[in-house]
Amino acid sequence: MKVPKAITHTQKLRETDALLDAFMDEAGMLGGKLACLLVQLPPSLAFDVAVATEFFKKLRARRPGAITCEPRHESWFEADADELLQTYEVARVAHDPRSSYAERARPHGSFAGMSKTRRGPISLGDVCSSGYTGERDDHLSKEPEKR
């Protein structure tokens, strides 16, 4: 489930307590069907260690399950962002593995063997994550149940 733009784009992860509470109340209605939260950030949102720490600390306190962050500013692909995401067990995904961000992420172990000049379909194997790399939630890989 995607975290609302009011939190990520409007508030830019700042002063989000009331919005997080309202969102988590709504998301909680899904019960065990809530597999993962996606924090998709705007391209203009640079990594700020203090803001990101406060936000992910608050989000993690409200959500013990899987959280994934999709940053779109290159500053989120540096070692300090990696460390913060690992601390709060937040996986990081790339929005476009052919972008220059993918190339920058290589030193940290992501996107190995990919070329930013590659064209054509992107396979699942091309979309690599970094940040937290703990246990995978098998719920995400299961086939949908037929009714």
Architecture overview:
- With 147 residues, this protein is an alpha/beta fold.
- The protein has a single domain (5-114, 123-134), classed as Protein of unknown function UPF0759 (TIM Barrel), CATH 3.20.20.
- Helix content is 32%, strand content 12%.
- It has helices at 5-10, 17-28, 49-62, 79-87, 100-105; strands spanning 36-40, 66-70, 90-93, 129-131.
- It has a four-stranded mixed β-sheet.
- The radius of gyration is 16 Å and the shape is globular.
Q: Please name the CATH topology.
A: TIM Barrel
**CATH superfamily assignment?**
Protein of unknown function UPF0759
Shape: globular
User: What is the chain-wise order of helices and strands?
Assistant: HHEHEHEHE
- Total helical elements: 5
Helix share of residues?
25-40%
> How many structural domains are formed by the residues?
1
* Residue windows where pLDDT falls under 50 for at least 5 positions: 106-129, 136-147
Q: Care to count the β-strands?
A: 4
Cα(first) to Cα(last) distance is 21 Å
Structural class determined from secondary elements: alpha/beta
For the biggest β-sheet, the strand order reads 1-2-3-4
List keywords for this structure.
147 residues, four-stranded mixed beta sheet, alpha/beta, 5 helices, TIM Barrel, disordered C terminus, 4 strands, globular, 12% strand
SSE order and pairing:
Layout: H1 5-10, H2 17-28, E1 36-40, H3 49-62, E2 66-70, H4 79-87, E3 90-93, H5 100-105, E4 129-131
Parallel strand pairs: 1-2, 2-3
Antiparallel strand pairs: 3-4
Helix pairs in contact: 3-4
